[in-house]
Amino acid sequence: MKIYTKGGDQGSTSLIGGERVPKYDVRVEAYGxxxxxxxxxxxxxxxxxxxxxxxFDDDLIVISRLLMHTESLMALGHGSEDKVxxxxxxxxxxxxxxxxxxxxxxPPIERFTLPGGHIVVSQAHICxxxxxxxxxxxxxxxxxxxxxxxALMFLNRLSDxxxxxxxxxxxxxxxxxxxxxx
Length: 182
Known about the structure:
Elements: E1 12-14, E2 20-22, H1 26-49, H2 57-74, H3 89-103, E3 113-114, H4 119-142, H5 149-172, E4 178-179
Antiparallel strand pairs: 1-2, 3-4
């Protein structure tokens, strides 16, 4: 099987189920940003392997799998909604549980955290911001097409996960947590 099909040479692509849409379709934009988030998450995971904080490795593998699943949900064409099973409460519950566990060891904050302090912390914040963009694009797609509400919830929780992960990594790596001074 060849990697190129030439099907997109004129600026369109196929969704799951065969529907052809322009490459700028809101669903394509949404799953494209989720794909970017998946690559950024892999980069974070690779960066963690060089540090003594591999305890989040399993989280990031689960998240990578759930991101691929979420991409598939964004790529459903008209009439193919039954071709990919929806995310479920356990998928979202996994993130909520991990957010709670990580938050339990963090000092409370009253101001926004600025990204930075260590390259790994910055990468966690890159994941957070790409996730927020993907969520906005998924919400835009949901305004026009039937998009899984669980996928939207997952993306919302995932950005929160990356936020607390960045704070926890700063603590573990001895990086100063820089708070915004209004």
